[in-house]
Amino acid sequence: MGKQRPMFCCYWCISDICIMAKLKLRKAELWKIGVLLGIFVIGVIIAYQIQKPKETLPIINPAMLNEALVADSLESVGVNHKISDFNLVDHHGVERSLADVQGKILVVDFFFTTCPSICIDMTKNLRKVQEAYKDEPRIQILSHSVQPEYDTVEVLQAYAEANGVNYDQWWLLTGDPYEINRLARTSYFAVMEQGEGWDEHSFIHTENIILVDEKGRLRGFYDGTSDVDMQLMIDQIPLLLDEDE
């Protein structure tokens, strides 16, 4: 008579099958929970991206600035400042006005061609802006000479050639010194207060490079001699490009 298989063996076999089935069921449940959790997390991320405030640059008005840069008549202006019209000549001898840059983002500075110090770095850094946005027609660089009696069209043209200025995107401007001073003091706030004895030979320009949006509003001041500041400008310009898209 053969030996009978112990009953406990069958019991353990059945138990093993039940445990395996439960484990498979638990794995399936965990997988479903994982999928649902993943969908939930993705939904939260998408909702955050949709609802989070869009990064923007501040709109800068005269009342926010150092009084030494601002004409007395504008020191208390806290809203709605925009650059004014102008009548200057570029380094190809073409007359330029606000109409020529209407709807463009402007990168603006004040310099002179014989400047032995900060202007060299400012021009070098503006060339980086030009290179970064060489394929973007909405960017226009305007460099105003603060010694227009010396910086004639011919002098500016030679300076442009020596410094890799692309005429399609960067104009060196000259003209009436009083007009240039007016722009510096009442539009861009880039020249220090001149004092009682001011004349056309005594501009005290700053290293500031000013970012102006397509509506003519001031949106940023950057140290034109600082590689870090100018890289920040290059990185922030897309914020203005995106505003009107």
From TrEMBL:
The keyword Membrane applies. InterPro entries: SCO1/SenC, Thioredoxin-like_sf, Thioredoxin_domain. The chain crosses the membrane at residues 30-50. Residues 77-242 form the Thioredoxin domain. Cu cation binds at residues 115, 119, 205. GO terms for molecular function: metal ion binding. Disulfide bonds join 115-119. Keywords: Copper, Disulfide bond, Membrane, Metal-binding, Transmembrane, Transmembrane helix. Belongs to the SCO1/2 family. This is SCO family protein. It comes from Phaeocystidibacter luteus. The lineage of its organism: Bacteria, Pseudomonadati, Bacteroidota, Flavobacteriia, Flavobacteriales.
